[in-house]
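User: I'm new to structure prediction. If I give you an amino acid sequence, what do you actually give back? Let's try with this one:
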Amino acid sequence: MEMLVWGGAAVSLAGLAGLVWCILKVWRLRRAGLSDGELRRAVQAVLPVNLGALLLSVAGLMMVVVGIMLG
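Assistant: Good question. You get back a string of structure tokens that encode the predicted 3D arrangement of the chain. For your 71 residues, that looks like this:
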């Protein structure tokens, strides 16, 4: 079960890295001075990556919890 905990921690950290990337990307887009419509389209392009990273992070945390409960 120790491998499940460490694997889950790694998956969760990968999801967290994806979330940080999304935050930085949108922050840079906002500072670029785009028009309202361009900014909206750019943020919509980042949204699937954001949701995927969030899903990855949650899955990793679930793996950690299951590993702790079974161990």
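You can read the tokens as a compact description of the fold. Here is one thing that stands out. The chain has two helices and no strands.
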